[in-house]
Write a structure and sequence with these properties.
Arc Repressor Mutant, subunit A; mainly alpha; globular; two-stranded antiparallel sheet; 6% strand; 2 strands
Length: 167
């Protein structure tokens, strides 16, 4: 990202993604009949990590969220109070406590995803089929780039030029 145009494009992308995230949060808050509207974005992210990876310790959850273990512990306490998560001692080592989703937590995530899918379906319909296909092609390239970055050693940035930036 060395030239001015790239930085302007990066800024627009950042602003648009941020606005989209806020739009999703606003749409969920307008559905007070659902459990998902009571969740903050970090709480939702914690629950999604647990759903994707299974039982997590507080330390593992903190690493996944990029927060300190005490912050993750406080968040888990709140989610346990809400009935979204439960703590369970490890069968292998009783000193280890794992955090798992409850049925209510799974239901809240399903409700949240339903709202988000509705927003994205509305957006794709607004864009029209041709532009939606183009956008999905670009997002597949974004996902491939993220996968490359995830496979790179810590701190190393993969430029991706050899894989072709043209879409």
């Amino acid at each position: 990202m060395s030239n001015k145009k790239t930085m302007e494009q990066a800024e627009f992308l950042y602003q648009t993604i941020t606005a989209l995230k806020m739009h999703l949060v606003k749409r969920m808050k307008h559905r007070p009949e659902t459990v998902c509207c009571d969740l903050t974005m970090p709480q939702s992210n914690a629950m999604l990590i647990i759903r994707q990876h299974g039982a997590r310790t507080i330390r593992q959850l903190a690493e996944g969220l990029g927060v300190a273990p005490p912050s993750a512990s406080t968040m888990v306490d709140r989610l346990v109070e809400m009935g979204m998560l439960r703590r369970e001692s490890s069968q292998a080592d009783r000193r280890v406590v794992n955090v798992l989703l409850t049925g209510d937590g799974e239901k809240a995530l399903a409700e949240m995803e339903k709202v988000m899918l509705g927003v994205f379906a509305d957006l794709l319909a607004y864009m029209g089929p041709c532009m939606a296909d183009q956008w999905l092609k670009v997002l597949k390239k974004v996902r491939a780039w993220m996968d490359e970055q995830d496979r790179a050693p810590d701190g190393e940035v993969v430029d991706g030029k050899e894989s072709g930036a043209n879409v």
